[in-house]
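Final report, Chapter 2: Outcomes

The project's central promise was a pipeline that accepts a single protein chain and returns its three-dimensional structure in a standardized token representation, suitable for archiving and comparison. That pipeline is now operational. To close this chapter, we reproduce one record exactly as it appears in the project archive, with the input sequence first and the structure output second.
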Amino acid sequence: MCVEPGDAAAREAAAPRPAEGPAVDPITVPPVDEVAVTTLIDNTFDALLGSRDGVERPPLGIGSVEAPLFEGGRTSAGLRAEHGFSALVTVRRGDTTSTLLFDTGSSPDGMATNVERLGIDVGDLHGVVLSHGHFDHSGGFSGLARLRGRRGLPLTVHPNVWSRRRIAPPGANPVELPTLSAGALRREGFDVIERREPSLLVDGAILITGEVDRVTEFERGMPPPHQAWDGSAWRHDPTVIDDQALVVNVRGRGLVLVTGCGHAGIVNIARHAMRLTGIDRVDALIGGFHLSGAAFEPIIPPTVEALTALAPSLLVPGHCTGWRAQQALAGTLPDAWVQSSSGTTYRLRSAA
């Protein structure tokens, strides 16, 4: 039997709460029988990709829309792709399932459009988590509010998601990035909960890492043009300290990690998740690895080397990973690497 998100017990179970013990001690994350991660928004959509065991692609012809110049007045528009990321994460333990939304994409309507075309009922959501405050992960809240109405929904964020940020390239005019409004979110019915520390959601089945320890020598964060307003001046913001990831423990398989951009460094994130949980096996990594562009391409080789040592069974780099890193990862880990595409569901079941 599924727990209805409107029930008081379900609301209480969905709300984040402090994980017991300090971060240096292992946090018990009970194993689940299955996790399904559906990419609602990514930078690409490829309608011709085929499904395989554990990877479910949307059917060819999805996204029927009005088109008066076609016979019958309709055509298949597929799914939206944009520079952004959003994923639906559903965990199952026995007969009970719980679903969280992780990030919301870039545009106000992109994620919502794909939700409708995929036939997903967002009324079943137990909560929303933001990986960090950049606009390409937080832009879709208005579309979500349109689909749900002003129904209360927990929203877990790091306190720094409200930071003003800009890109200031040398010799060019700075471009200030859109900043999320806490007040506007609350007016739309979102119950905003700020935490720097790890949180356990949906009755302890999902761990949100909170701030990630930076331990590798090569993952050094954003270059100098990425700046944040500190109240008196714009200063280099290398860490994007609000960056956090989602972690699920699948019985007999190990950890499944979902990242937004991975600004903390995908290797740092994986090692942090293992340290937090005391589980030494990372079975899957899905999301943005932020290895695109001149500032990050030099760290592709050590990143690939470290991920090879982890030996995940599923590797789905998306969003800001970049084509050079995709090529390197696909060539080095061909059995694990899978091309990301909007609308794809990655399903990992218990191995025990």
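Archive annotation: The first helix runs from residue 8 to 14.
This record, like all others produced under the grant, will remain available to the consortium after the project formally closes.
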